[in-house]
Give the backbone structure.
Amino acid sequence: MSDLDPAPRDAADPLAAHRDRFVGASSPLVYLDGNSLGRPLAVTGVRLAGFVDHEWGGRLIRGWDEDWFDLPQRVGDDIARTCLGAAAGQTTIGDSTTVLLYKAMRAAVALRPGRDEIVVDRDNFPTDRYLAEGVARECGLTLRWIEVDTALGVSEELLAEAVGERTALVVLSHVAYRSAYLADGATLTRLTHDAGALVLWDLSHSVGSVPVELDGWDADLAVGCTYKYLNGGPGSPAFVYVAERLLAEIEQPLQGWIGAHDPFLMGPTYRPAEGIRRMLSGTPPVVGMQPVRDMLELLDRVGIAAVREKSVGLTGYALDLADDLLAPLGVGVATPRDPALRGGHVTLVHERMREVTTELWRRDVIPDYRDPGGLRLGLSPLSTSYAEVRAGLEQVRDVLGGLLG
């Protein structure tokens, strides 16, 4: 269809010039998995080389006094300002997403003594569910499950039915990892607070792609990764946010030296640091923070609103192409069509999508697969073109059509 030609879209895209900043973006490979691992920025190689030669190799242990000790909070503030709609002093870079989610869950339920339920939906990311199960077991709590449509997510009505006077903590994903359903952060936070509970937001599939307003929502805690839309690389460290009003009383369970009031005192007992640094435990991942800094600088220049506009355009285009090229082959859509309810990826469903994904990877077309039968397209706005989306979905049509005979 002529109205699905990608060329006019790419020509009119105000962010198109940024694509060349990413390593490999000009190659023939079609990369549609930016919500699992973002492409590296070309400047990151220069930054890392400079860090090895000058900061690590040149300054050595002096780097801690000169820069590194406060780096987790500085990078955390940059994430907060650029992506989270949060004031300074509430966000820090720390451990992996899993470890920070665990810390946040344990700390949150401790702030609500006498309440014995954690609310979580059955389609939340596996780590979130597994951790909630573990924390409930450790603390003698009960899980209250929200049953959700896997093509959607947690709605106002579903949460209202689940929370009550027994609820200590609600664990929610801002963007559902399968369907890309975009939760209403402000409304769900308000409902949680009306029940007297705290809410922990997992922002892993939204940060850097979808605007977040943690302070505006009156959110309590949040955790997110940096290797998806923040392009920090495999295993890059996660961040944790704790609302300022909770910082004086929150106590996280992994009491390490770097989160102590005076780390170099090496005192006989643990006394937590003031502010967000108390959420840290061990030595911060200084090397792992370097690539994230490059992406944050780019996002700061471009603006998250422009990124979101491009994201809506890419995902809408992917849905239109799916209707045109793939619906005749029996492919369905497991992602909200309303852009106000949709994050930065699209999931297309067919019983043979696992086989399709295997063949696409062999052809250097890289989407993602999620059961049941979901082909997930992670469209990173700054590194993905409309032509790339078209090329990828044409390959999906060809491979699936071949399998169906």
Q: What stands out?
A: The chain has a mean pLDDT of 97.
